[in-house]
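Structure tokens please, single chain.
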Amino acid sequence: MSVRSRLGTGFKLAGGSAAVLRNNPRLLVFPVVAGAAIVAYVTAVFGGLIVSAESISLPVLIAVLFGVYAGSMFVMSFCIAALAWAARETFAGRTPGTFDAFRAAAGHVWALACWALLSAFVGVALRALEESSNIGGMIVAMVLNMGWFALTYFVVPVIVFEDARPTSMIQESGRLVRETWGETLGSEFGVSVVTALLTLPGVLLAVGLFVVASGNAAIVAAGIGLALAGIGLLIGVTLGGVAKVALYVFAREETAPDAFDDSLFEQATDASRQS
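Here you go.
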């Protein structure tokens, strides 16, 4: 598939996801909970660091920062797992409750915790490699980061829908990507572009109002713009989560959810298998 085709596929995936979101707006709750929980968690941890700044040692500081990374990953993965479960219920024509979705995610809490820890280890290692002064290390880190993203693309759906163990979740995700979506993973770029387009107006408004206004009015105006950008980001993240579940469902069942066009998935899959 060409870059243009992948982008078009991403836009169509976002369109189908938007139709699902219109039918069940409560899907927005899960990214909201994730964002609020992560902010509260990070604020509490760094608040404790500030209080004990004089007595904390470097190893403890590193451990705390890793805990922040891993904890944030766990919260995000847990909420995305709940979103994935709720999205598939919506595909089936049911209206899932928010509590039921979180309870379904809680049934896989240990696998999600293992995934968060592994993600944190890999993320920290790649970050350290990326920040090295060696240009070769930066290039290697970028390539490995892209490979890790592709390999683990379906990890959360595999955990939620297949009750995969920590020892098999990455293997199953990688197998799905290789067999069905290896070439078309670039369509994710289209969904990311949609997210950026939803976020950009709020950012531009915030910057513009901050420049034009003055004093407290500038701060309030910028806050309004950033709030709008946050809403756009929230919608974009939700659309991306729904699209990923739709890709997973087609990969496993070879039938697209009702809100999506079968031909879209079939063309993408054929392109993947021919490459």
